[in-house]
Known about the structure:
It is a single chain. The protein has one domain (3-137). Helices cover 86% and strands 0% of the residues. It has helices at 3-28, 34-56, 62-90, 98-137. Helix 2 packs across helix 4 (98-137). The mean pLDDT is 90.
Amino acid sequence: MTLRGLLCRFAAAYVVLLVVVAVVLNLAGASSHTSGNVAALLAAVTWVCMDFAKKNGRYFMPEEKKRAVLGMLVIDLAMQAAVTVAAGPLSGVPALSLGPTALVLLFVGVLHAAVIWFFVGFAGKQHAAAEARRNKNG
């Protein structure tokens, strides 16, 4: 699998998980979707990274890891920006102010960058542990 394939899968998985989480949380009557959004993000990151390792028989090389994390962050921020811009008029806000919107996206970006970086590393450790078990058993 290529990095482009990984990023396409990430985008598709993330969108599907965000929609599913939003529907489930709305049906449950939750007023905030923040934890659900982070859960969708970490699930999508972990799944595509483990799938990359399985299909390639190895985990990321250092340069691939940097590009994968950056690519996932760009996709995530693009989705966050699109939702923010679309949700403004739906919530009764006549026009979004660029400054506060940019600060919110920056804050979310920093938090999501940490989640993405951590779970790319976590998936790598899970892959290494699975390989060690496989080599030990057979």
